[in-house]
Amino acid sequence: MKTLVIYDSLHGNTKKIAQAIGDALRADIQVLHAGEANPADLRSHDLVFVGAPTHGGRPSPPPKEFLGEIPANGLEGVKVAAFDTRISNKWARIFGFAAGRIAKPLQRRGGTPLGSPEGFFVEGTEGPLREGELERAASWAREIAERAR
């Protein structure tokens, strides 16, 4: 199964999650920063993960720009999953999280979601990741990949 993980990371936490996803899947896999990914290449993959840190309830700018460049039906026939990194406090829950705002355009452009958007927790604004989050990301990725088969 040809898989692509696209991410942005400001403090390195989301990059670590993206790499954990890539390491967990024993497939033909690429892990790319959103600025390196080509929206025209998406249909050549069976499964695409997209993730970003949450800022003000939204994904950081590079993934938002990438998602905006995906042509209509550019994900037709592609299975997709969205993730983010986030803090857990009252204010964050009020504004929402990036993963849901990543999942919607993936689906609008023809992607088939393989589960609910997933969030991985950081301690404070810059991290580090909470203990156990890399393992949880790997487990989540394996579950998503199993659904893709």
Write the layout of secondary structure elements.
Layout: E1 2-7, H1 13-24, E2 28-33, E3 47-55, E4 58-59, H2 61-69, E5 79-86, H3 90-95, H4 98-108, E6 112-113, E7 118-121, H5 133-148
Parallel strand pairs: 1-2, 1-3, 3-5, 5-6, 5-7
Antiparallel strand pairs: 3-4
Helix pairs in contact: 1-5
What is the H/E string?
A: EHEEEHEHHEEH
Helix content: 25-40%
Can you name the CATH architecture?
3-Layer(aba) Sandwich
Radius of gyration: 14 Å
Main sheet? 7 strands, mixed
| Strand element count | 7
The pLDDT mean sits at 94
Task: Quickly name the level 1 CATH class.
Answer: Alpha Beta
As a percent range, the share of strand residues is 15-25%
Distance between the termini: 8 Å
Rough outline: globular
CATH structural fold name: Rossmann fold
Name the CATH superfamily assignment. Answer: Flavodoxin domain
Supply the helix-strand structural class: alpha/beta
Number of domains: 1
* Low-confidence regions: none
The count of helical stretches stands at 5
